[in-house]
Design brief:
The chain is of the alpha+beta class. Helices cover 50% and strands 16% of the residues. The protein has three domains: 53 residues, Multidrug-efflux Transporter Regulator, Chain: A, Domain 2; 66 residues; 148 residues, Heat Shock Protein 90 (2-Layer Sandwich), CATH 3.30.565.10. Helix 6 packs across helix 7. The longest helix is centred in the first third of the chain and has 44 residues. About 4% of the residues have low confidence.
Length: 315
């Protein structure tokens, strides 16, 4: 008679919560049959198959057994979600306080003041704006952690609707231009000003923002970032080209994985979690599109994604 594990056995063996094991069972990733009031029975063969399937996911596994890998991967998913949730509230509160302080300061600057007081308050306003930008950057990192954990848990959802991709590209580039006022962005967009797609506009902005942030991070400050939007057959293609060091061919498939930044060195103090392209791929794939990168050492990189054009019958 084949041996089996209970839900609690799996949770204990892999060091994860019962909720995580139940999620694997509900999704079918781990096979099991109802057992007792609220548990499952997992045959040993099914458990071993589950471990081997997770081992084949793109991770560095050279020194890890299948069981160790599943432990670290599942624990990482829970850690990302927990850290993201814990950081979001204090960061939101801090940003709100900074915005309120800046509004009060702006009101004070509009009142009659001595030259010395005006100079002091102007410097204080600059410091508050810097702090607010930094908190916003940290909130984006937290958002990336939460998005990554949702992707792993199959809880990453979209709200699609009719969109003009030309407007999305323009707005996204304008936002980045405001954050990087010293950098040059060049756009080549369709002449007719309308490229209709069915998409979650906020998520497409996020995907393009990730491409632009990468281009800014890895290219010299005196080189332009080029953005293209082209239409061919029944799909639109958005691409971002930089003049950075390029991505070696051996790394081009790995840049789409979690926490992968490759061997490229950012220009200046830029960093990150290595989640941007991973999240972009998930966004585009849920839109039935594709992602890709074209790069040669020393010649820069072009990251692109495609989206299906809106069907004329869509309402």
């Amino acid at each position: 008679m084949p041996s089996y594990l209970t839900t609690s056995d799996v949770a204990t063996r892999l060091g994860v919560s019962l909720d995580t094991v139940r999620r694997w069972l509900r999704s079918g990733e781990l096979k099991g049959t109802p057992f007792g009031r609220a548990g499952y029975r997992i045959e040993d063969a099914d458990f071993q198959a589950f471990l081997h399937r997770r081992q084949r996911q793109p991770q560095e596994l050279s020194t890890s057994s299948p069981e160790q890998y599943s432990l670290s991967n599942a624990a990482l998913e829970e850690l990302m979600n927990a850290v993201g949730q814990e950081l979001r509230t204090p960061l939101t509160t801090t940003r709100g306080a900074l915005q309120q302080a800046r509004r009060l300061l702006q009101h004070a600057l509009e009142s009659p003041l001595s030259d010395n007081t005006l100079d002091l308050l102007t410097k204080l306003q600059g410091l508050l704006m810097r702090a607010e930008r930094q908190v916003s950057a940290e909130m984006r990192l937290v958002g990336s952690l939460l998005d990554a954990s949702r992707i792993e848990a199959n809880k990453f959802e979209l709200s699609p609707g009719w969109c003009n991709l030309v407007e999305i590209v323009r707005e996204t580039v304008t936002n980045q231009q405001e954050l990087a006022a010293q950098r040059l962005f060049e756009q080549e967009l369709p002449v007719d000003d309308l490229v209709a797609v069915i998409a979650d506009a906020d998520r497409i902005r996020q995907a393009l923002t990730n491409y632009l942030a990468n281009a800014l991070k890895f290219s010299p400050a005196d080189q332009p970032i080029k953005i293209y939007l082209e239409v061919s057959d029944a799909q639109a293609c958005v691409s971002v080209r930089d003049r950075g060091p390029g991505i070696p061919a051996s790394e081009q498939s790995r840049v789409w994985e979690r926490f992968q930044q490759g061997q490229r060195q950012p220009v200046g103090s830029g960093g990150g979690l290595g989640l941007g392209l991973y999240i972009t791929r998930a966004i585009i794939q849920q839109h039935r599109g594709q992602v890709g990168v074209e790069s040669h050492a020393g010649e820069g990189s072009t990251c692109w994604f495609t989206l299906p054009l809106a069907d004329e019958t869509w309402h």
